[in-house]
Design a protein that fits this description.
Largest sheet: 11 strands, parallel
Number of strands: 11
Structural class: mainly beta
Shape: globular
Distance between the termini: 69 Å
Helix content: under 10%
Order of helices and strands: HEEEEEEEEEEEH
Length: about 130
């Protein structure tokens, strides 16, 4: 039974099942689960779950994320990013909150806390070069 404050988009789940491989761009308003392989840009206003067999190579923007599989690329999470024990992440993370289980691995840069818009602005602003003698 649906919760009174859930919209139909909150209840909908898009799925890429194991054995399926997609390349391109995905934009969705609701949650998405990847158990197959995806290469490209993924933008969702909902929750992203990368299952244990899931592999993503690309750039991700989402509200919340739970990673059990493999991610190569950049991920921007507005609220909570959870790396489960089987997660393998190679790339940059920008998130408000991060949860890391023992056994997971991460290689890259991580920026957390603060407002996501401010963090994105800071990472895209060129830094001045100071020469010293």
């Amino acid at each position: 039974m649906a919760k009174p404050n859930e919209s139909p988009a909150d209840m909908a789940i898009n799925r890429i099942v194991e054995g399926t491989s997609i390349e391109g761009e995905i934009k969705c308003e609701s949650n998405i689960r990847i158990d197959g392989s995806f290469k490209g840009n993924l933008n969702t206003k909902g929750r992203l779950v990368i299952g244990p067999a899931g592999v993503i190579d690309g750039t991700i923007s989402c509200q919340n994320a739970e990673i059990e599989g493999i991610l190569k690329g950049k991920i921007q999470v507005q609220q909570l990013l959870s790396l489960k024990g089987s997660a393998r992440v190679e790339g940059d993370i920008i998130t408000d909150k991060l949860s890391v289980e023992p056994g997971s691995s991460f290689s890259g840069n991580c920026t957390m806390g603060g407002k996501l818009k401010d963090l994105i602005k800071e990472t895209n602003t060129p830094q001045p070069i100071v020469a010293s003698r």
